[in-house]
Every structure is written in structure tokens, then in C-alpha cells.
Amino acid sequence: MHTHMKELLMIVNxxxxxxxxRKDIALAAQKEGWNVTIVCKDxxxxxxxxxxxxxxxxxxxxxxxxxxxxxxxxxLFLLKLYKKHKDAIVHHVGMKLILWGGLAAKLAGIRGVVxxxxxxxxxxxxDHLSLMAKGILxxxxxxxxxxxxxxxxxxxEDKQLFIQNHILSEQDSVFIKGSGIDLRTYTxxxxxxxxxxxxxxxxRMLKEKGVLxxxxxxxxxxxxxxxxxxxxxxxxxxxxxKAIQKxxxxxxxDGHYIQWLxxxxxxxxxxVKSHILAFPSYYREGVPxxxxxxxxxxxxxxxxxxxxxxxxxDDGSNGYLIPPQDxxxxxxxxxxxxxxxxxxxxxxxxxxxxxxxxxxxxxVVNRHLGIYRSL
Length: 375
Known about the structure:
By secondary structure, the protein is α/β, with parallel strands linked by helices. It has 14 helices and 13 strands. It has helices at residues 15-21, 23-31, 46-51, 68-84, 95-108, 131-144, 156-164, 211-225, 246-252, 267-273, 289-297, 327-339, 341-358, 361-374; strands spanning 6-14, 34-41, 55-58, 89-93, 112-117, 149-153, 173-175, 197-202, 229-234, 258-262, 276-279, 301-304, 319-322. The two termini are 25 Å apart.
């Protein structure tokens, strides 16, 4: 007797991203009886995906560039795959896969489509749409014109862009903030009792992530706090030639008051040992994972009003929201938190409550399973 297994194909850029951001959803779907296959670029972690009991198919994709030959290869690969799996639900993560996967799914007549839209900033600057952006919107509008398609948004701005461009209706859009966090792993930790106050920044060392703004704020506070406060910059360099270079960064960090730690795998422990998380990014983010982690652990956050970042802080409750690229305001807010342990503690507790309310991995997983079932 042939029993019909519900089939789910999850299409992501690469294995690494799948393991860090989507693994829990795939495993929960598998447990619920779905036959799950991950389709992505293999960067050497295929065995880790397969060790979870999941199938993985290698996807020909260039995650960053735009070269029409490579793009058409990605599209044709998905079209062929979807024709073989017409009965599946497909879940595309990221704009490039929504574009080609959505088109392939429409042409192959696949059963149901879920699109996870995150961080459209690069393609769609707010002022005007390029010819390419218009072309992309045209294809995406065409491929959305079908039954059984749902889009998941991480921020209101991306959702409005899709609705205003008549890509989909309000009832087919779902709002899920970020990828969620395991609140059992990231438990609440009281403020460290050390005499030295540690201020942590964790991200790649990119200007847009606000690293230079933070260094400038640290220098504004130096004469009052050197010896009593440490700024910890945690993260690797970007290989972009326009990005901050190693020598430049080492020159700005004295190794005591301002320390550059480089890329680290123990970010969770660093967070627990720190008192404050400062993240003055002005990059169009999805919802930064480091900020969700800080909420869960109970650390007050200073971040900017920029898209994505502002979703993790209720100003004055679990931290402060400041204007982008404003080192003076950043210094002023840091001063308040350095001087007042009781405010740090109160804000930390509020952050934990916010994480429990909004960022639990269990909620994120259950909402995805609900979407798959509805299709």
C-alpha cells in the first residue's frame, strides 16, 4: 500500500545558513511526518545536514553576484526539480530564491509556496527603483499570481513594499520577527558583579554595522572611564576592499580600553560576561540575531532606529534607540547605563520578558508548521 508522505523542499543559499537559521523548523516538520529535503549550495557541511537525518540536494547558485548564465542555471535546475516534485510544498529563503524559485514553482505548478522575505534593503533603496529592481518586481508579481502562496516578513517595511506593488494581499502575508531563539539555551543571567563594566559589540567589522560610531563614542567617554570600562569588539573583518582594514582597526584599538577580539565562537559566554550590548548599526538588517540573544540573556541594548534593529528594543524599557551615526547620543546613553547598575538590571529583566513574548524558537517553529499545513 502506498502511503502519501507530505513533502517539503526548503531552498536556501547555503548549508551554513540553513544550519544556523532554519534547522529547527526542518527538524520539527520531519518529526510531524513531512519528508524534508534541503536544497542549497554545499560549502562543506553537507554531512552535518545529513547527520540530522535530512536529505540534501546541491543547488547551483552564486549567492552574491548577478551573472545571467549562473542565474539561468539556478532557475533551470529548480524548474526541473519542481516538475519532479509537483506535490511538494516549497519554502524559499531570501530574495534570489524567491525570484527564481517562485517563477519555477509557478511554471511547474507546484502545490504550495512559502517565501521568507528578509532584508530587501540592497535591491530596493527607498528613493527610486532601478530598472533591475522593477524587472525583479515584475517577475515576482507574476509568480505570486496563483493559489496557495504565503510570504513571511521580518519587518513592516518589506511587507509594505510587496503589498504596495500588488505582489500579494494582506491575508497572504505573515509577520514573524527573526529566526527565533532557544530560550532554554539562552537563559537569563544577572548582571556580572565585576568592577570593570564591559560593553560588547558583535558583528563583522563593517562601517555600516556602526563599529566606527562606537569607537568614536568610546573615545568621547575615555577620560572619564578608562580603566573602569572596556569596549569589546567581537567579529572578523570583511574581505570587501572598501571595508575597514586590519591595520586601520588595530590602530584604533589600544587592546585595553578598546579591544578588538576578532572572530570568536564563544559569543554566548562573552555576552554573559558583559554588562551592555551596543550595536549602532545603520545597515538594513532582517532582525539581528545578536540582539535577540542579548534580550534573552538579559542585557540592556543600545541600537539605532534602523530597520530590523528597532524591532528588538522598546525604547526606555529594555534599552535605548538612538539616531544612526550619532556618536554623541550613543556616548550619552552609554554613560547612563555605566553609572546606573539598577537601570541595567531592570532593562535586562524587561529584555528577557520581551524575548519570551516575541522571540521564542518554539513559537517560530509552530507558526511555520501551521503555514505548511495550511498549504
